[in-house]
């Protein structure tokens, strides 16, 4: 059997290793100059919108909801076609999660469904850029504004993408990124929150660092001593260390190359599978220039599981993204029921993510294409 082919894998260069080694030989491992540099480097790819680096994409969501002031009695409208963290991070702040259905073709939050779901208690409308394809942020901006809510973009899949020529990071009040190993760039574990709002950024920075207040002008007891620090609102330790930020800055220098290669592989899959009658290749809106994180093939006729088993049996590491969030028992125990979002459930029942990462070779992609075609006898 051929070597096992994962569905995602990091791309680490000698330059990445050198950047990490330089930090390891220096004076800072945790919160030091590499964090500041990474946040500045990241802003160059988000239209100049400043960033707050955190320990994971989940932490980014938790921090962003905290910055938005989400709490008990608030509602967060979001997509169910996402990793559970998009909803869980808001629920952990006490919010009620309101799932709105997705577009049947892109898998992204449907603006019409979001508009029908908002109420006077909606604090945040949280879109998800499924597979790297940006959600319709202009239409969702209107929905959020009309509801008096903040717009959050869960861009765990989509750093480097643009919508109507504007980079992801400039389109929402709060944008969150993930830099997990399989994402478009990696810090091993890591994430970030970006926002054009100084107020939201200050709240995010505070929550990332236990809520500590060190500015004497903002303290209630500033004369205690030079060592004094205070907590005015609870936060957590979500600080991303220097050693990982150094890796992130190095990876950012290859982001455009990663995007090009992912686009080439995406197009190769499209060309190799376009004549297979029993599958649908991914949809791309004309307004979108995606940084493709996934290749979400849709398998028709109820044969997704059989194709999954077939490809896994040939050493091809396909994956399914995602079980609708409210299918998880934690939401079922809160009263959420299957059938809530039919489009998302149909999409899930068909979706199969083919291997896609920057170091995937053309021959690897052709191996996947041939295996899919052989399953369908074409």
What key attributes describe this structure?
378 residues, alpha/beta, Aspartate Aminotransferase, domain 2, Aspartate Aminotransferase, domain 1, 7-stranded mixed β-sheet, 3-stranded antiparallel β-sheet, globular, pyridoxal phosphate, pyridoxal phosphate binding, DegT/StrS_aminotransferase, transaminase activity, PyrdxlP-dep_Trfase
Description:
The protein is an alpha/beta fold and 378 residues long. The chain has 2 domains: 239 residues, 3-Layer(aba) Sandwich (Aspartate Aminotransferase, domain 2); 122 residues, Alpha-Beta Complex (Aspartate Aminotransferase, domain 1). It contains 13 helices and 15 strands. The strands form 4 sheets. A 7-stranded mixed sheet has the order 1-9-8-5-4-2-3, with helices on both faces. A 3-stranded antiparallel sheet has the order 7-6-13, with no helix packed on it. The protein has a 3-stranded antiparallel sheet with strand order 12-14-15. Helix 1 packs antiparallel against helix 8 and helix 3 packs across helix 7. The longest helix is centred in the last third of the chain and has 19 residues. The radius of gyration is 21 Å and the shape is globular.
CATH class of the largest domain: Alpha Beta
- The value of Rg in angstroms is 21 Å
* Global structural class: alpha/beta
Provide the β-strand percentage band: 5-15%
Q: What is the makeup of the main sheet? A: 7 strands, mixed
Cofactor: pyridoxal 5'-phosphate
Keywords: Pyridoxal phosphate
InterPro entries: DegT/StrS_aminotransferase, PyrdxlP-dep_Trfase, PyrdxlP-dep_Trfase_major, PyrdxlP-dep_Trfase_small
Organism: Saccharomonospora xinjiangensis XJ-54
């Amino acid at each position: 059997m051929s070597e096992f082919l994962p569905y995602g894998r990091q791309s680490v260069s000698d330059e990445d290793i050198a950047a990490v080694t330089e930090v390891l030989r220096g004076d800072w491992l945790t919160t030091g100059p590499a964090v500041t540099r990474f946040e500045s480097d990241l802003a160059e790819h988000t239209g100049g919108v400043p960033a707050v680096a955190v320990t994971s994409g989940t932490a980014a969501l938790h921090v962003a909801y905290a910055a938005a002031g989400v709490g008990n009695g608030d509602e967060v409208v979001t997509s169910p076609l996402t990793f559970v963290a998009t909803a869980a991070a808001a629920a952990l702040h006490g919010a009620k999660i309101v799932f709105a259905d997705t577009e049947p073709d892109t898998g992204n939050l449907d603006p019409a469904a979001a508009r029908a779901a908002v109420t006077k208690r909606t604090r945040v409308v949280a879109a998800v850029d499924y597979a790297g394809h940006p959600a319709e942020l202009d239409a969702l901006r209107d929905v959020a504004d009309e509801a008096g809510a903040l717009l959050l973009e869960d861009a765990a899949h989509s750093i480097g993408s643009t919508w109507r020529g504007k980079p992801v990071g400039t389109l929402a009040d709060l944008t969150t990124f993930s830099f997990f190993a399989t994402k478009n760039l990696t810090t091993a574990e890591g994430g970030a929150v970006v926002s054009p709002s100084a107020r939201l950024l200050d709240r995010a920075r505070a929550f990332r660092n236990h809520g500590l207040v060190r500015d004497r002008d903002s303290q209630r007891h500033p004369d205690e001593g030079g060592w004094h620090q205070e907590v005015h609102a609870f936060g957590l330790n979500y600080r991303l260390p220097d050693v990982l930020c150094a890796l992130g800055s190095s990876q950012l220098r290859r982001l455009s190359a990663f995007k090009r290669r992912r686009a080439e592989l995406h197009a190769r899959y499209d060309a190799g599978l376009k004549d297979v009658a029993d599958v649908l290749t991914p949809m791309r809106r004309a307004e979108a220039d995606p940084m493709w994180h996934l290749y979400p093939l849709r398998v028709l006729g109820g044969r997704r599981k059989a194709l999954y088993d077939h490809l896994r049996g040939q050493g091809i590491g396909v994956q399914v993204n995602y079980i609708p969030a409210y299918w998880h028992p934690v939401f079922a125990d809160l009263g959420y029921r299957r059938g809530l979002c039919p489009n998302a459930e149909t999409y899930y029942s068909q979706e199969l993510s083919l291997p896609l990462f920057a170091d995937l070779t053309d021959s690897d992609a052709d191996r996947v294409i041939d295996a899919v075609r052989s399953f369908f006898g074409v």
